[in-house]
Amino acid sequence: MKPFLKWAGSKQHIIERIKAALPAGHTLIEPFAGSCAVFLGTNYRRYFLSDINKDLINLYQTLQAEGEPFIQYCKTYFIEENKNRERFNQLRKEFNTTSDMRMKAALFLYLNRYCYNGLCRYNSKGIFNSPFGRLKPYFPEEEMRNFYRKSGSARFESADFRDVMSRAGEGCVIYADPPYDPISSTANFTNYAVGGFSKKDQVDLVRLARQLAEKGMPVLISNHATEFVLNLYRGADIQTFDVRRYISCGNRGMAREVLALFTPERQAVNL
What residue ranges define each of the domains in the chain, with the CATH number in brackets? Predict the structure, then answer.
């Protein structure tokens, strides 16, 4: 199934590779849910899907709770008079100021489809500031219905990845798709939520992955195949491959990615 959001770093284009690397289990935990491409492309019995971006999770929770009425409500924003920069800026301001969480969820979808390349960006004050795009958007009606149908097996929550991963138990598999380690100073984008994602966060993620793997809960992590990342992930079962970058600051060429699987058998190296 295809995600209904446009999302930087969406795993839809490499879902088969991820599925092949994911171990069996009854529950898949994703502390960086993003567009939920992995949730939509896999068949675990249960899912625990989290993201630090509260607006993203609010959208998922609202769609899960309401289904078709919410889909039709969202559709009311995809009208001709809203297909211009002026209305986009007005609705973006409304999104940043409203306390109506249902409206905020619908506006998040509108902004995602109308903004530049689906870029989700906030300033230091937590204000969504992605600019208007140039292409006429498509309303993902059927994709939203598919998501709603599958959401009955999922729990959505906005929380820090440390909290989410600490709740893993027997039979859980964790797939972590954090903001990537930048491959250059001009490609350093991690502000999809207030606070960004630091080198310390990357280290903490791997420390938790090792701890969980030692307890029998495998962890698969995606990232850029930078020197920092490859050194950090040492001891894991690592595969690297080239992927096309769809949203970046400048170059849109190929980039080297890594999938690192942490299992009890591979935990010979400790941080």
Answer: 11-54+155-266 (3.40.50.150), 64-144 (1.10.1020.10)
Q: Which residues, listed in sequence order, are joined to residue 93 by a DSSP beta bridge?
A: none
Tokens of 252: 């849109």
Residue 265 to residue 50: CA distance in whole angstroms:
27
Q: How far is CA 145 from the centre of its chain?
A: 19
Integer distance in angstroms from the first to the last C-alpha of the chain? Answer: 38
User: What are 103's two structure tokens?
Assistant: 């409206």
Tell the residue number behind the tokens 């009311």, with chain if given. Answer: 76
Distance of CA 3 to the CA centre of its chain: 11
Instruction: Render pLDDT for 111-169 as a digit per residue (tens, 0 to 9).
Output: 999 999 889 999 999 999 999 997 788 899 999 999 999 999 999 999 999 999 999 99
For the chain, the helix, strand and coil percentages under 3-state DSSP, each to the nearest 5: 45, 15, 40
The pTM of the full predicted model, rounded to 2 decimals, is 0.91
d(CA 201, CA 217): 20
Q: Return the bridge partners of 244, or none.
A: 254
**Is 225 in a helix, a strand, or coil?**
coil
> From CA 146, how far away is CA 28, in angstroms rounded?
19
